[in-house]
Amino acid sequence: MSTVNVSNVRKIYPGHAPQDEPVLALDDISFEVGHHEFCSILGHSGCGKTTLLNLLAGFEKPTRGAMTVDGEPVGDPCWQRTVVFQDYALFPWMTVAQNIGFGLEMRKVSRERQKAIVDRNIELVGLTGFEHRYPHQLSGGMKQRVSIARALAVDPNVLLMDEPFAALDAQNRAMMQREMGRILASSEPEHRKTMVLVTHSIEEAILLSDRIIVLTRRPGRVKADIEVDLPRPRCEDDPGFQSLKARLRDLIHDEFAVEH
Amino acid sequence: MNGSIANEIPVKEKEVGMASHNRPGLARRLARRVRSLAFLALLLALWQYASTSLLDETTRTLLPPPTQVLRAAWELIASGDLFRHTIDSLRREFMAFVFALVAVPLGIAISWWKLVEEQLDPVMELLRPIPPLAWIPLSILWFGIGDTQNEFIIFLGIFFPILLNTIAGVKGVETNLIRAARCLGATEWKVLRRVVFRAALPQIMTGVRIGLGVGWMALVAAELVGATSGLGFLINDARTVLRTDYIIVGMATIGLVGLLIDTLLRQLMQVVLPWSKAHSR
After folding, report:
1. pLDDT band at A174 (very low <50, low <70, confident <90, very high)
2. Do B273 and B193 belong to one domain?
């Protein structure tokens, strides 16, 4: 049960040196993500989409504007809003099971329940048999599965994902996108998390999202807010997919032209 | 779902498999080891020749041949003196090390809270460039001759390497690890203890290794002038009675124990930090 509401958010970074101009990263961002909705933030690198995610997680504070989740203002980071990072950010000294259990341990969940939840999430991401491996013994795709399981295990209201598949090679990326699509398609709408995905991949956004927010380049502003009502699981060959892809490419391409 | 994992083979196993394949045979490795000792053996033979055939009765006292050093070593082992002095030195090193571990929480505090860094940095910068050995005269006046003075000097030798490495280690912790812990519900204390400390541990252990090495050097210097036991005392005491063979035995022991401490630490790091590459440095 979670609505994410972002209204008139602006983020200014002070320059590195005192004589530097302050950098306007995000300007007047407003959008809303409904219950159980999967929302993608699509834009070029450097458009401030990661900044937007950091603001939603509570890692940074907006310079102006308001953000709420279920009507509550977004404050410090907490387990109701977990993050899946591009570089996985797994704890290298913990095994797969310990990584996934970390959040539960922080929430002081009893040992038996911890184990049950960890096992269920390991199964969900298809890592059964790898519980006692350390992250350095896993491939990139497997690490990202652990990271997703770790973020889901604490049962957050909102799952935030920062280019989760960008560091993977093309094959693994395609597989992980399909997996994610499968998890989304198979779960009942009322069991889904509200998800916010930051990505620069048009296909990834269409494959997974109910809503796509397109950001402009520097400073990031909302250029388009598009609802996607294609049936799931989605297929790249579908004409609806193709026409949306062309539309998004035009929107993104415009932005590129403006810059040069 | 499991089928899709099959082509994501964990990288580690592949590498291990290949490494064991390329490993040379035992006889080959032994031969290589023996060959690497050839020059050392030549030097020892030259030393033996020089001190028995080239030097006269008086100068030979200054450079006794290896055979006499071995005899002296046996004397010192048999009498229990070598063992006693080694234990005394090791005990001082250990005590100083225990006190110097305060550098770990201090280092974490310095790199975590701006205010602590701001206040402690000038103090540290002022004290750090003073070599531990420069403290010897003052510390003898403060603590007299004996364990406390020695331990103080060793402490100074161990403390700063641990402190500086802890600070560097904590500052080098990836921001996203800390953020991941925070968004999973970790409190500040849990973040420090469970993530920051653990992530900085390889670097902290490197600091411990360097520190124990520096401390061991400082120990010998401190014992030269400020002790009535220990390996430093042993070699200085032997000088006053012109037992150069004892001096050389003492020097060799100091080197061997230093090497042993470092080797043990490296082994320990391999066991405690299997995920880190720091122990192979």
Report:
1. confident
2. yes
CA distances from A104 to A57, A109, A210, B211 (A): 18, 5, 29, 38
Residues of A in contact with B2 (CB under 8 A): 126, 128-129
Identity of the residue in B2, B177, B185 whose CB atom sits nearest the CB atom of A154: B185
B261 domain-assigned:
yes
* Domain regions of chain A by residue span: 1-80+158-232, 87-155
Residue ending a domain, choose from B16, B34, B63? B63
Q: A139 near B10, Cβ under 8 Å?
A: yes
Do both B25 and B150 map to the same domain?
A: no
B140-155 pLDDT tens trace: 999 988 889 999 999 9
Residue B68 domain-assigned (yes or no): no
Number of domains in chain B: 2
pTM of the model: 0.81
Region B161-188: what's the mean pLDDT? Answer: 93
Please list every residue in chain B whose beta carbon sits closer than 8 Å to the beta carbon of residue A151.
184
Chain B environment of A107 (Cβ under 8 Å): 185
**B22 and B149 part of one domain:** no
Domain holding B197: CATH number? Answer: 1.10.3720.10
Q: Which of B53-57, B232-236, B277-281 has the highest mean pLDDT?
A: B232-236
How close B158 gets to chain A, by Cα (Å)? Answer: 26
User: Per the CATH hierarchy, to which homologous superfamily does domain A1-80+158-232 belong?
Assistant: P-loop containing nucleotide triphosphate hydrolases (3.40.50.300)
Same domain, B52 and B98: no
Task: Name the residue among A59, A127, A172 with its Cβ closest to that of B179.
Answer: A59
Region of residue B232 (phi > 0: left; psi between -120 and 50: alpha; otherwise: beta): alpha
pLDDT at residue B11 greater than cutoff 70: no
Q: Are residues A44 and A255 in contact, defined by beta-carbon separation less than 8 angstroms?
A: yes
Helix B197-226 and helix B244-272: axis angle, to 10°?
Answer: 170
Residue B132 covered by a domain = yes
Q: Cα(B257)–Cα(B245) distance, rounded to whole angstroms?
A: 18
CB–CB contact A154 B181 (8 Å): no
Q: Which domain holds residue B46?
A: 1-63
Q: Which of residues 22-41 of A touch B (CB under 8 A)?
A: none
| Cα angle: B204, vertex A82, A9; to 5 degrees | 110
Query: Do residues B168 and B34 share a domain?
Result: no
Q: Does the distance separating the beta carbons of A142 and B5 come in below 8 Å?
A: yes
Q: Give how far B126 is from chain A: nearest CA, Å.
A: 28
| Angstrom distance (rounded) from CA A253 to CA A224 | 13
What residues of A are in contact with residue B201 (Cβ under 8 Å)? Answer: 93
Mean pLDDT of chain A: 84
Gap between the Cα atoms of A103 and A80, Å rounded: 11
Confirm whether B72 is domain-assigned.
no
Mean pLDDT of A181-187: 69
In tens, the pLDDT along A80-107 reads 889 999 889 999 999 899 999 999 888 8
pLDDT over 60 (residue B130) = yes
**B9 shares its domain with B105:** no
